[in-house]
Amino acid sequence: MQAGVRALEAVNWEVDYVITHCLPHDAAAVLSGCTFYPDRLTLYFNDLLHRGLRFERWYCGHYHTDRTVMGKFHMLYERIERLI
């Protein structure tokens, strides 16, 4: 997690894409209607957002659905997206 913060600091907290297993807690809460419990990783991702992480799209696959929440958080399960 500290290495992730250092990597983001090196690029001034701005990336095109974030690719992770799960979502930040706030986005997972929207997805689930507030039924997901936060854990260390989802809270870490939330912290990155609140520290100023800027990105075009965030991708994850943990939730086994093809859905977008909050406009920028994309869950991929069967859908395939070309990034470049």
Features:
84 residues; alpha/beta; 3 helices; 15% strand
Strand arrangement, largest sheet?
A: 1-2-4-3
Task: Tell me the number of strands.
Answer: 4
Average pLDDT, rounded to a whole number, is: 93
Q: Count every helix, treating DSSP H or I runs of 4 or more residues as helices.
A: 3
Structural category is alpha/beta
Low-pLDDT segments, ≥5 res = none
Which range does the strand content fall in? 15-25%
Helicity, as a percent range: 25-40%
Measure the end-to-end span: 26 Å
**Morphology call:** globular
Order of helices and strands: HEHHEEE
Rg calc: 13 Å
Describe the main β-sheet briefly: 4 strands, mixed
Q: What does it look like?
A:
It is built from three helices and four strands. The protein has 84 residues and is an alpha/beta fold. It has a four-stranded mixed sheet, covered by helices on one side. The longest helix is centred in the middle third of the chain and has 11 residues, at 40-50. The radius of gyration is 13 Å and the shape is globular.
